[in-house]
Amino acid sequence: MVPTVALARRMERAGADAVIAEGTEAGGHIGELTTMALVPQVADAVNIPVIAAGGIADARGVSAALMLGAEGVQLGTIFICAQESPAHPDYKQLVLDAKDTDTVVTGRANGHPVRSLKNKFTRRILEMEKADAGFEAIENATVGSYRKAVQDGNMEEGTFMSGQIAGMVKEIQPAAKIVGDLMASTEEYLKTFTEKRGITLG
């Protein structure tokens, strides 16, 4: 998983078979570059397959990633709401209820940015960062917070990691249906897109 071209090149030199170029739209630990800006630059910089991640939830996102030079995609947030996901039901409901502006990034102050859904805990961490509480104090406050979200659905002390596409996730479905529908809709989307424009795909 790489957030920059430099790191992608380093991973290629180290023998990686592929890299996941993850944009800042993703949930969890993130970099600063957007998927739209990062993926084509990484694709141009390395000779191994590039997988796109960050802000992808439907056929349009998958198609865009392919047009940017990716060989495939990685999705995270949409699978929080898979039936098989071990995430607490309250975690899943937060994603289902989310709007486009319901994620926030904490950790920029200490160089470890994390995107998650807004709640009391993220507000407290942001207040600590604003008050310059220091790395150790913030680190101590966040230890175990992801487990509290996933396992306990703890709204007071949990970090509910999620990407910016949370607002696009509308239902809980089996993982196989999520993948199957995404593959089928992407094929149909690309077919319709090219036919409308008189483009022939080789």
Tell me what the structure shows.
With 202 residues, the protein is mostly helical. 46% of the residues lie in helices and 10% in strands. The strands form two sheets. A three-stranded parallel beta sheet has the order 1-3-4. A three-stranded antiparallel beta sheet has the order 2-6-5, with helices on one face. Strand 5 (103-106) and strand 6 form a beta hairpin. Helix 3 packs across helix 9. The radius of gyration is 18 Å and the shape is globular.
Keywords:
mainly alpha; three-stranded parallel beta sheet; three-stranded antiparallel beta sheet; 9 helices
Number of discrete helical segments: 9
Q: Could you spell the SSE succession in H and E letters?
A: HEEHEHEHHEEHHHH
Major beta sheet summary: 3 strands, parallel
Percentage of residues in helical conformation: 40-55%
Helix/strand/pairing class, anyone? mainly alpha
In spatial order, strands of the major sheet run 1-3-4
What is the distance, rounded to the nearest whole angstrom, between the alpha carbons of the first and last residues?
A: 30 Å
Spans of at least 5 consecutive residues with low confidence: none
Radius of gyration: 18 Å
* Shape annotation: globular
In what range is the share of β-strand residues? 5-15%
Strand element count: 6
Q: What average pLDDT do the residues reach?
A: 95
